[in-house]
Design brief:
The chain has helices spanning about 5-10, 15-35, 45-50, 55-65, 80-85, 105-110, 115-125, 130-135, 145-155, 175-195, 200-225, 235-240, 250-265, 295-300, 315, 330-340, 350-365, 380-395, 410-425, and strands at about 70-75, 90-95, 140-145, 160-165, 280-285, 305-310, 370-375, 400-405. Helix 18 (about 380-395) links the parallel strand 7 and strand 8 (about 400-405). With about 425 residues, the chain is of the alpha/beta class. The chain binds iron/sulfur cluster (SF4) (2 copies). One iron/sulfur cluster binds near residues 78, 79, 144, 145 and 311. One iron/sulfur cluster (SF4) binds next to loops.
């Protein structure tokens, strides 16, 4: 951190000693995994800076916004529409966490066999190490998987500002009507929180801001179709992770800047890895910061990741919202249309996801798919089997991985990934 933020963290109620320990591990992991990469685009310097200040400058910015009366909203899922948050003059930040913390305390409240993502979110609260969570004026939970919806009942006893959104589980007209009803209810809750009425103008502006951010990420993704690929999967994942924390306009500008640089690299045929390096599509559970374990294993095993079928990736960002509506009602409908297409494994049945994975294999010219499930994540573990069957039916090599946030299985995973990469060669 370039500044001393101790008093800011103290005022947020963080446990300074535990927080220092977390930052040290995060810094070391970043050094070993990210900064050790070779031949990175210069534009990644921006993301290195963002990561070095992820608990510093960005939190200071959020607190400055709060001083000026703006509200901060934290969320755990890509179903929470940023458009509505922005239109109510608030800022949305992601709260999902990608590292184990305070596990002993967590396991007093949650069963041991809960997925690492949920446990980690609790660990960051119980360990008092997440300045985003402590800055939030409203925390939005959502009824997606069983683990999350039951965990929110417990989280509600730990925080005072939890709002829970119900979500459909079936892609039917009834399911869509439920989503619409819940987004309308969320809009009212946001207006109440900020005392700002959402207007057609503010909603249109918010849709355009989020569309611009998603378009920039689409542009980055499309540059990964090229062989040799100009950016590593680790770096592209980082951009997708920062998507959830950064100021939207600055993020858009920074991603577009990197894309300009990558286009020049492509013209010069400058890949981040040699031409014809085996190309992998990752598919499955979202990877929140600092969960870089599997991408790091893949990219140090002779392969390169060319796409993420994930909520921290294309599942979360792929569609834009139609901004042509003239009334709040029309634009709310457009928002519902856009989010209803997200093919999370909590939906039943969920054939769109299978189609999307196969489509991504083709688009990004992937040689194989690694399906990643967190241990104890029923929706993605269950779905990994039909995904594998479907891909094998299309002669697409597939490897199913089940893991957690610990580093204990790194050796074993590396052996399996290396064997898979050999097979692709
Ligand atoms: S995987 Fe499902 S529950 Fe998790 S962030 Fe994505 S949409 Fe939400
Ligand atoms: S990883 Fe799976 S179990 Fe965990 S929160 Fe997401 S959908 Fe639920």
């Amino acid at each position: 951190m370039s500044e001393n933020y101790q008093s800011m963290w103290q005022n947020l109620g963080l446990d300074l000693k535990a927080h220092d320990a977390l930052l040290e591990v995060l810094g070391k992991g970043y050094q070993d995994i990210y900064l050790a990469q070779k031949n990175r685009p210069e534009g990644m310097g921006y993301f290195d800076f963002v990561m070095s200040e992820v608990h510093g400058l960005r939190i200071k910015e959020l607190l400055d916004e709060k001083e000026q009366g703006r509200k901060i909203v934290g969320s755990y899922c890509v179903f929470v529409p940023e458009e509505i948050v922005l239109a109510a003059n608030a800022t949305l930040v992601g709260l999902c966490s990608g590292a184990d913390f305070a596990m002993e305390e967590v396991e007093k409240l949650l069963p041991r066999n809960t997925c690492a993502l949920i446990k980690s979110s609790f660990g960051f609260k119980l360990g008092k190490v997440c300045p985003y969570l402590e800055s939030a004026d409203m925390i939005v939970g959502e009824n997606t998987c069983d683990g999350k919806k039951k965990a929110y009942e417990t989280l509600n006893t730990l925080v005072e500002n939890l709002y829970v959104m119900d979500l459909p589980q079936v892609k039917s007209e009834k399911g869509k009507a439920l989503l619409k009803e819940e987004y309308d209810r969320f809009k009212i809750a946001m207006e109440k929180l900020t005392s700002v009425s959402i207007t057609a103008d503010s909603l249109k502006q918010a849709i355009q801001t989020v569309n611009a951010k998603r378009s920039a990420i689409h542009r980055l993704s499309s540059l990964r179709k090229v062989n040799p690929v100009p950016i590593s999967g680790l770096d592209a994942l980082l951009a997708n992770q920062v998507f959830f924390y950064d100021n939207p306009a600055r993020f858009t500008e920074s991603v577009n800047k990197i894309c300009d640089e990558l286009e020049k690299r492509i013209e010069l045929k400058q890949g981040v890895v040699p031409e014809n390096t085996p190309r992998i599509l990752l598919s499955g559970c979202p990877m929140a910061v600092p969960n870089w374990k599997l991408p790091w294993i893949v990219e140090t095993s002779g392969a390169v990741i060319v796409g993420e079928e994930s909520c921290v990736g294309e599942r979360g960002t792929r569609n834009l919202t139609d901004d042509s509506g003239q009334t709040v009602e029309e634009m709310m409908d457009a928002i519902v249309d856009r989010y209803f297409k997200v093919d999370c494994a909590i939906f039943t049945p969920n054939p769109d996801r299978l189609d999307h994975i196969a489509e991504m294999v083709e688009t990004y010219k992937a040689d194989g798919v690694i399906h990643y499930s967190l241990q104890f994540c029923q929706p993605y573990l269950m779905e990994s089997m039909p995904v594998e069957k479907d891909l094998e039916g299309k002669s697409i090599p597939t490897l199913r991985i089940e893991t957690d946030y610990s580093m204990e299985d790194v050796g074993q995973l590396k052996t399996r990934v290396e064997a898979f990469v050999e097979q692709l060669k």
